[in-house]
Amino acid sequence: MAKVMLGESEKWFIIHGIQDDMRNDGRSCEDYRHIEVETGVVSNTHGSSRLRLGSSELLVGVKVELGSPDPKAPNEGLIHFHVDCSPNADPSFQGRGGEDLSANISCILTRIYCNKSSIDLNTLGIIPHKQCWVVHVDVLILECGGNLLDAVSIAVKAALHNTGVPNIQVTDGDEGTQEISLPDDPNDVKFINTVNAPVLVTISKVGSRHVVDASSEEELCCNASLVMGVTKRGRTTGMRKMGGGSLDPESIPEMIETGKNIGRQLHISLDKLLKTEQGMAEDIEKAGYL
Amino acid sequence: FELISDEGYRFDGRKPSELRRVRCNMGVFTQADGSAYIEQGNTKVLAAIYGPHEASNNMRSRVCLDKCFINCEFSQAMFSSAERKKRSRGDRKGKDMSAHIKQTFEAAVRTQLYPRSQIDIYLQVLHSDGSLYCACVNAATLALIDAGIAMKDYVCACSASLTKETSLIDINHVEELAGCAEFSAAIMPKLDQIIYSELNGRIHQDELGQLVDAVTNGCKDIFAVIDRFEVITDNTEIAVSPRSLHS
Amino acid sequence: MLKSKVIMVKTRSGKILKIVREHYLRDDIDNGLFGGKLDQHPELQNDLVSSEHFLIPDTNVVLHQMDVLEHSCIMNVIMLQTVLHEVKHRSSPVYKRIKSLCANPDKKFFVFTNEHCIDTYSARVKGESTNDMNDRLIRIAAKYYDKCLKDRNQTAVLVTNDRANCALAKKEGLDALTIEQYVKNIVGYPELLDKLAKADEAIEVDKSISYPEHLKLSQVQAGVKSGKFFQGKLGISRENYLEGKIITHGEDGKEILIQGRLNLNRAVHEDVVAVEMLPEDQWSNPSGVILDVTVQPGAEITDSEKKKSSGVPTGKVVGIIKRSWRPYCGILESFGSPEMTRHLFTPAEKRIPRIRIETRQAKTLIGQRIVVAIDSWPRFSKYPQGHFVKALGSVGDKDTENEVLLLEHDVAHEPFSQAVLNCLPPSDWSIPKEEFAVREDFRDLPICSVDPPGCTDIDDCLHHKDLGDGTVEVGVHIADVTHFIRPGTPIDNEAATRGTSVYLCDKRIDMVPELLSSNLCSLRDDGDRLAFSCIWIMKPNAEIVSTRFCKSVIRSKSSMTYAQAQMQIDDKTAKDPVTMGLRGLNKLAKILKHDRIEKGALSLSSPEVRFHVDSETHDPIDLQNKELRDTNSMVEEFMLLANCSVAKKIQQEFPECAVLRRHPEPPQSNFDVFLNAAKSRGLELNAATSRDLAVSLDRTEEPKEGIHSYISTLLRILATRCMMQAVYFCSGLESDFRHYGLAAPIYTHFTSPIRRYSDIMVHRLLAASIGADKTFSELLNKTEIQNVCKNLNFRHRMAQYAQRASVGLHTQLFFRSKVVHESGYVIFVRKNAVQVLIPKYGLEGTVFMDRDFEGNTTVNADDLKYIEDKCEITVRGVKLCVFDEVTVQISHDATNVQHQRINLKLVHPKINGISI
């Protein structure tokens, strides 16, 4: 069964361990679990990525479509996020059980991406007021092993990095109409610039210390956490407190500092990996789930 | 658009009696009791099994005293087809497919061995390119084996279509759209029994025999692939099957 | 091995999809070098190639140089899958031709599936366009073949039209030549050079003319969508080849006139074009008067004179959407000296412009009918450019002219291919035993057939038996053609393409090979035959009690002609079962006919004649009008009844995909001229419904003051011309099934499967509905059926035109050595001429009222008075009204070698300057 249940003594065991900077699986408080990222796994999307963080497993697929821009921002494209919790992850996600969680995550993602500094939406505009690219990011959660938000944000950044928007040409037809024509070569794409894309870092307060990348058991022990979006340069794009407990106002700046450092490191490793992957020959077969 | 060229090759280069490349893996997830992943050509399906376990709260009414009941849910990722389609979880097509798969496995799983409990089969389609039902059944079979649930026999499924007196095995999406009749069936190969079959489209009575034979042969081929994989039990990939193409 | 193919597609709703498809690579693909598909030692020699070689053409060579490839000396060609795919997308008529070449085992064309072969596959290189990739794949395949042939000391030659591709290939070490170089250096076949289609550079630049440029297809499509341009098929006027009109697509199709060379802008008759409307002050009128004396008789009466007022919408062609070029028959103009290589070709079809060709054989070709195909029409050339395809024979020679009219009407008349003949059963075929088990045995019924004299393809037999209990059993037995012609076989495909047998005056072009049409399927009286029977139980008043259909075995007791059958019926001493049956049938037929007429069936007439052909010279000796006897009508009635019964049955069983035939009701405006003509002679006709028309036509039979007796027949002839065409259609795609002319609510063709393909389709449907045969997917596919019906309607129309042209040809041959005076009737009065019908010869022609027979204008405007409403014309005081009887002199005029005609000159009434 996927539902994690802890007895009282197990909870205290975890909390005491964390106080001594010793977590159940041997990590320190600021260590992440083993992360595996692979991009370009789903071939009929414009960009995709697969991520494994500990025992959380996600698949992100990005598809781009033509659409009309928001009248308030006629030169910009649009990004839409959608999260789907597969019942593979937890039987309680069957039917409409996972909707609350999906709505929550997609809301947060929208928040951190829809500001000017994350992704330059101007590059996604085609014809002002008429046509623009609409990027649909679909996140599929296959296994929940704790710390979903961080995993989702890393996977989304990797997928967006992998997304190739076709280089279309706009030609002027008669009487002001404009024709959009596709390039002949399907590989003629422009990749989305994810230099400033943020990554979420969740810092959970367990007992009196805070830990990063809480596993599902640890999540049950914590009752307050801070989620922040951090960019490569260490700037914060958004922040939210989650959970039913309370946070000491003096500990918040400390948590933010920790978050920023961790975020920067995450970005460095992720970028290195993405660069290596891009450098590899295109023909290599993706392992995916095999 | 011809389904079979004059030289005898299909649109993707296969001969009419050849399967697509089949690759599979078991034990993909750690949290589920059993899981498997199968790729039939470009149709990729993930299956996860939870159970047998005590019936969950909202299913308590379906508990049987003498056997377990099987709960199945089928869902397709939004990026699985070429055109992005927003699919809600409880839509008709999903429910239809879930019901068929449930029916299939109720015939194959030894349900009497697990009274008063529930077995969940969850299927997630990552990429759909024809023969969805068949890939789902094959994935679920592997996942059930991985979960250690007792079954009467493997369940292998395959699809076939008939055009100009030749039967095509293992049809992909393009061939499905061509409009010929499509016949899918799930078979227990060692017991040689058909536990589910479905025919879409119209064929003449005399042609049915040919189609059924074709599908049976296809299922036996798939069984050979899955069985061979089973022998190599350390979860490495396999990419060869007797009648499919070289890798 | 599995590779994937990725393509980006933009759907109509604006979505951009990335489609991924599997692409398997195989190592067991046959390359044709062993096993006989290609010759071991190809014979064709070429000065530029040192060894025995095979040819690999690229896409452009296939698209533009089909005539070269079809020549008998070009064999041992390797067609690559890549090339075939490209051809299929660019031009389906060329694709059909190349497929039939590949299917012909004698031509040794081998199709190599290079994209799935592991040795010749290559993935797309980044930044490569589709065209470059295809060219590269072709080069890789050529290299592969070179490697395979090295140890046989043979080579594969890549033939291309493109010099750049040629250069690239040579750089990679391949044997590559342009098609020009190759053809110029072939040993032994100099005539091939003429068949080369020219590239786009103009052969001759005319300084006088410069056509505006055609817009690109994308601009044209955008313009049509936005409504700026109109799309339609161009129809050049028969009377003036520099004028034409298009009828725009869509339900409210309006006509746009296009006049003049520049406005026509290189559009050819029947091309689908995009037209831009000219501003209203430039609108003009179609030229109303008949310009050209050589107008074909019997043409549709254009009421262009009606448009007198301000101008009709006029436009100019801005772009060509689809060319409908085909090979044209015609002659070379004797132009300059025969030593020159560039000549002008004049097509037989007057609506096609002259074509420039290059040929060395001009000396032999002058005076011959030749076939030429158009290649292109550059902007700076007054005429389109083309190339010579083949020569047919001397102008005026009967066989050549027959060939010309068959080609011009697109009637397939080549001998049946080996693939088709292979589908036939052996000539000593007899009914297998299993058939007797599944069929009813009607061999002892008094079955007989009644057909025209000399008929060898007997489709239908009848029988009549008195059951003794007040009812009679009547049976119609039709040849069971579908037993021999199975769906999807080459013989079936060929029959579907031909659509119908064509009956020329002296020849019959069969739809199915003669073994079937005249022997195995034909219901002759010399043995057992397979049939498809329709049996009715009727009361003596022709009321049908029950109908049933079944497959049967019959033995016809007697094959009679109409005359013989009539004699049998009239002979009071004959009392054998067949004659008794004939009498019974005759009686019932009369009742059936009466019932039909009551419902409003029309009996119109046309001046049909039959030629007696001299058995030695096969020249026509005499003409004979068709006579209608009782027996003609008897057979016809039962055929109609069978067709109606079958139509009802298949519609009931297959409501979505039954093949039916309907005759739309003509709009009342079609009748205007006709009713007006009748009114001018004091006859009130009513054409509101078919019944009204039939009744009022019958009324004209009664003798009346001042009107001669023939007028009734003339009115029937004119009424025929107001009718619409009857067409085949698929029942699921239309809602109006009625047949106007027969006054039947539902109708189909069932009774002549030997000579009509629609009947074969109906047989298959009927057999499936009675469980005697199985269905197959194409039988039940509505769009497939509709496409086949479209083709059948086209072939039917073409066959009618060809038949009429054949009659015209024979009439000309008949009058070649004669000059005859004969009486005729005026059937139409025009502004400056009258149209005269001569019933004895079934001829129609124009007699001009404003010029003498040399063409000089002899009558000026004051002496000529035309009153349209009264359909009369007065010249120099002599009045001619419609339906007046006149006498004319008929003679043959061979001044225009290509368009020889019959001249009519007025003898009586005498008009100064007009009559002779």
From TrEMBL, chain A:
- Keywords in UniProt for this one? Acetylation, Cytoplasm, Exosome, Nucleus, RNA-binding, rRNA processing
Q: Does Acetylation count among this protein's keywords? A: yes
User: Which GO biological process categories is it annotated with?
Assistant: exonucleolytic trimming to generate mature 3'-end of 5.8S rRNA from tricistronic rRNA transcript (SSU-rRNA, 5.8S rRNA, LSU-rRNA); nuclear mRNA surveillance; nuclear polyadenylation-dependent rRNA catabolic process; rRNA catabolic process; TRAMP-dependent tRNA surveillance pathway; U1 snRNA 3'-end processing; U4 snRNA 3'-end processing; U5 snRNA 3'-end processing
Q: Name one GO molecular function term.
A: mRNA 3'-UTR AU-rich region binding
Cellular location(s): Cytoplasm; Nucleus, Nucleolus
InterPro entries tied to this protein: ExoRNase_PH_dom1 (IPR001247), ExoRNase_PH_dom2 (IPR015847), ExoRNase_PH_dom2_sf (IPR036345), Exosome_comp_Rrp42_subfam (IPR050590), PNPase/RNase_PH_dom_sf (IPR027408), Ribosomal_Su5_D2-typ_SF (IPR020568)
Q: In its UniProt entry, what is this protein called?
A: Exosome component 7
An example Gene Ontology cellular component term from the record?
Answer: cytoplasmic exosome (RNase complex)
The segment(s) forming the Exoribonuclease phosphorolytic domain are 32-166, 197-261
Subunit text? Component of the RNA exosome core complex (Exo-9), composed of EXOSC1, EXOSC2, EXOSC3, EXOSC4, EXOSC5, EXOSC6, EXOSC7, EXOSC8 and EXOSC9; within the complex interacts with EXOSC2 and EXOSC4. The catalytically inactive RNA exosome core complex (Exo-9) associates with the catalytic subunit EXOSC10/RRP6. Exo-9 may associate with DIS3 to form the nucleolar exosome complex, or DIS3L to form the cytoplasmic exosome complex. Exo-9 is formed by a hexameric base ring consisting of the heterodimers EXOSC4-EXOSC9, EXOSC5-EXOSC8 and EXOSC6-EXOSC7, and a cap ring consisting of EXOSC1, EXOSC2 and EXOSC3.
* One Pfam family recorded for the sequence: RNase_PH_C
Homology family: Belongs to the RNase PH family.
From TrEMBL, chain B:
Which InterPro entries does its entry note?
ExoRNase_PH_dom1, ExoRNase_PH_dom2_sf, PNPase/RNase_PH_dom_sf, Ribosomal_Su5_D2-typ_SF, RNase_PH
- Predominantly, its location class is cytoplasm
Looking at the record's lineage, which domain of life comes first? Eukaryota
The family this protein is said to belong to: Belongs to the RNase PH family.
Name-wise, this protein is: Putative exosome complex component RRP41
Mind giving the lineage of the organism this protein is from? Answer: Eukaryota, Metazoa, Chordata, Tunicata, Ascidiacea
**Biological function:** Non-catalytic component of the RNA exosome complex which has 3'->5' exoribonuclease activity and participates in a multitude of cellular RNA processing and degradation events.
Q: Which UniProt keywords apply?
A: Cytoplasm, Exosome
From TrEMBL, chain C:
InterPro entries for the chain: Dis3_CSD2, NA-bd_OB-fold, PIN-like_dom_sf, PIN_dom, RNase_II/R, RNase_II/R_CS, RNR_Ribonuclease, Rrp44_CSD1
Domain named RNB is located at: 439-772
Gene Ontology BP terms: nuclear mRNA surveillance of mRNA 3'-end processing; rRNA catabolic process; rRNA processing
Cofactor names from the entry are: Mg(2+)
Keywords for this protein: Cytoplasm, Exonuclease, Exosome, Hydrolase, Nuclease, Nucleus, RNA-binding, rRNA processing
Q: Where is the PIN domain?
A: 53-167
Cellular component per GO?
cytoplasmic exosome (RNase complex); nuclear exosome (RNase complex)
Any single GO molecular-function term of the entry would be: RNA binding
Transmembrane residues, as ranges? none
Where is this chain's protein located in or outside the cell?
Cytoplasm; Nucleus
As for family, the record states: Belongs to the RNR ribonuclease family.
Which PANTHER family does the record cross-reference, listed alphabetically?
EXOSOME COMPLEX EXONUCLEASE RRP44 (PTHR23355:SF35), RIBONUCLEASE (PTHR23355)
Indicate what this protein is called per its UniProt record.
Protein DIS3 homolog
Species assigned in the record: Ciona intestinalis
